[in-house]
C-alpha cells in the first residue's frame, strides 16, 4: 500500500507539478518576448529612450502562474549604442512544487526566460 | 476486501484528479502559446483603417491566427486548441494621442475546459499585451 502511494504521488507530481512548470515556462517566455519588443520599440539612442523602454516593460500587465502572479526581478539590458536591441530576462519565477517534494523532489523549481528584440525588426508580415 | 474498497476509492479519486488537472494544464498551456503567437502577429501586421470594416477585418485575422495559426484559414480548418472559436478571442487596440495604434491586447474572453470529471472556466486569461511595431496605414483597406 505504501509503495503504491509513493508511486501514485509520483504520477500525480508528474501531471500536476510538471504541468504547472511548463505553463510557467511558457507564460514567462511570452512575457519576455512581448517585453523585449516593447523595450526595443522605445529605443532612440538616448538615455531618455532607455527610461521609456524600462517604463514600457514595467507597465506590461502580463502575469504568470496561470495568470495570477506578477513578474518580479525583471532585468532589462540594451545594446551599447542604446538603439539596436533590447534584452529582457525574467529569472525569478519560482514554481512551488506540491506532490513531487513528497517523493524527494525540490520544494521550488525556477523557470527563467530570456528574449532579445531588435529595434528595427525585419518586416515579414503584411 | 475492505482494504481494497477503501484504497480503490482513494486511488480512483487521485487518478481522476490527475487526469482532470493534467488535461486542464495541457489545454491552458496551448492557450498561452496560441494567444502569444496571435499577439505577436497583431503587433507586426499592418494596421489598415480606411473604414471601421477594415479594422474589424484586421481583428478577425488576428483571431484566426490565435485559433487556427493562420490569418486566412481554409474552410474546415481545425483549431489549435480543441473547441476554441474566433468569437472567444478578444482583440483590443490601444491608440496613442495621435490616433496611431500603440499597443494591442489579445486575450481569451471565455473558454471552458471539459476535463472529463469537471469543468474549468478561463475568462480574460491567458492575456498578452504587445507594442505595435507594424506599419500604420490609415487610408488602406484590408485585402
Shape of chain B: elongated
Biggest interface found = A-B, 31 and 35 residues
Strand order of the largest sheet of chain A: 3-4-7
Stretches of chain B where pLDDT is under 50 for at least 5 consecutive residues are none
Structurally, the number of domains of chain A stands at: 1
Overall shape of chain A: elongated
Mean pLDDT of chain A, as a whole number?
90
Number of helices of chain B: 2
Taken in chain order, the helices and strands of chain A follow as HHEEEEEEE
The number of helical runs of chain A is 2
Return residue spans of chain A where pLDDT drops below 50 for at least 5 consecutive residues.
none
Structural domains of chain B: how many? 1
By secondary-structure content and strand pairing, the structural class of chain B works out as alpha+beta
| Proportion of residues in helical segments of chain A | 40-55%
Query: Termini of chain B, distance in Å?
Result: 70 Å
Question: Can you describe what's shown?
Answer:
The complex is a heterodimer of chains A (126) and B (143). Chain A is of the alpha+beta class. Chain A has one domain. Helices cover 41% and strands 21% of the residues of chain A. Chain A is built from two helices and seven strands; from the N terminus they run ααβββββββ. Chain A has helices spanning 2-40, 47-59, and strands at 63-64, 69-70, 75-78, 85-90, 94-96, 108-110, 113-118. In chain A, the strands form three sheets. Chain A has a three-stranded antiparallel beta sheet, with helices on one face. Chain A has a two-stranded antiparallel sheet with strand order 1-2. Chain A has a two-stranded antiparallel sheet with strand order 5-6. In chain A, helix 1 (2-40) runs antiparallel to helix 2. The longest helix of chain A is centred in the N-terminal third of the chain and has 39 residues, at 2-40. Chain A starts with a helix and ends in an 8-residue tail after the last strand. The mean pLDDT of chain A is 90. Chain B is α+β, with helices and mostly antiparallel strands and 143 residues long. Chain B has one domain. In chain B, 42% of the residues lie in helices and 22% in strands. Chain B has helices spanning 2-44, 52-68, and strands spanning 47-48, 89-95, 101-108, 111-114, 119-122, 127-131, 136-137. In chain B, a hairpin with a 4-residue loop joins strand 4 (111-114) and strand 5 (119-122). In chain B, helix 1 runs antiparallel to helix 2 (52-68). The mean pLDDT of chain B is 92. The interface between A and B is medium-sized, with 31 and 35 residues.
Amino acid at each position: 500500500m505504501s509503495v503504491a502511494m509513493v508511486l501514485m504521488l509520483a504520477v500525480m507530481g508528474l501531471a500536476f507539478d510538471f504541468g504547472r512548470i511548463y505553463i510557467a515556462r511558457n507564460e514567462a517566455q511570452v512575457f519576455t518576448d512581448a517585453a523585449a519588443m516593447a523595450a526595443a520599440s522605445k529605443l532612440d539612442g538616448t538615455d531618455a529612450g532607455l527610461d521609456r523602454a524600462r517604463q514600457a516593460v514595467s507597465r506590461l500587465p502580463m502575469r504568470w502562474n496561470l495568470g495570477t502572479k506578477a513578474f518580479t526581478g525583471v532585468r532589462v539590458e540594451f545594446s551599447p549604442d542604446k538603439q539596436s536591441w533590447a534584452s529582457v530576462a525574467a529569472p525569478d519565477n519560482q514554481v512551488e512544487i506540491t506532490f513531487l517534494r513528497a517523493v524527494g523532489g525540490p520544494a521550488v523549481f525556477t523557470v527563467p526566460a530570456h528574449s532579445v528584440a531588435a529595434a528595427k525588426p525585419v518586416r515579414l508580415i503584411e | 476486501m475492505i482494504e481494497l474498497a477503501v484504497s480503490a476509492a482513494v486511488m480512483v479519486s487521485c487518478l481522476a484528479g490527475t487526469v482532470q488537472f493534467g488535461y486542464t494544464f495541457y489545454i491552458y498551456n496551448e492557450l498561452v502559446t496560441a494567444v502569444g503567437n496571435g499577439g505577436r502577429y497583431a503587433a507586426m501586421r499592418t494596421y489598415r483603417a480606411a473604414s471601421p470594416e477594415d479594422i474589424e477585418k484586421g481583428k478577425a485575422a488576428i483571431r484566426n491566427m490565435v485559433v487556427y495559426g493562420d490569418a486566412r484559414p481554409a474552410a474546415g480548418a481545425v483549431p489549435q486548441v480543441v473547441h476554441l472559436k474566433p468569437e472567444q478571442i478578444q482583440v483590443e487596440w490601444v491608440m496613442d494621442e495621435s490616433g496611431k495604434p500603440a499597443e494591442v491586447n489579445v486575450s481569451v474572453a471565455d473558454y471552458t475546459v471539459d476535463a472529463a470529471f469537471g469543468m474549468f472556466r478561463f475568462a480574460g486569461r491567458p492575456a498578452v499585451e504587445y507594442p505595435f511595431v507594424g506599419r500604420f496605414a490609415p487610408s488602406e483597406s484590408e485585402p
